[in-house]
Amino acid sequence: MANSMKTIVKKCFPKAIQVTDRFHVQKLATEALQDIRIKHRWDAIDLENEQIKQARLNNKTYNPLVFNNGDTRKQLLARSRYLLYKSPQNWTENQYLKKSNFV
What we know:
By secondary structure, the protein is mostly helical. The protein contains five helices and no strands.
C-alpha cells in the first residue's frame, strides 16, 4: 500500500493488479479509531482543565461528573481502547456499564 512499493511493482510487474489485503485494511481502521479516541480524550482533558480553572476562579471545589461505573469521562476514554476492539458478547458487566454511560 506504500507509494514506493506501488512504483516498484508497476515497473517490475506492469500487468499486475493492485489488491488490498484484509490485514492492512483492519490495521488502517484500527489506527483511525485509535486516533479518534485519543482526540476525544484530549478534548475531555481540555474540558476538565477549563472546568477546574472556572471552579478556582469562583472559589469552588471542582467535582467531575462520575458515571455509574466510577469513571470520569477522561478515565472512560482512557480505558475504552480494548472495549472498542472486543466483541460485545465477550464484554464484562463493567464494560457494559461503560458502554451505557458513553452512548
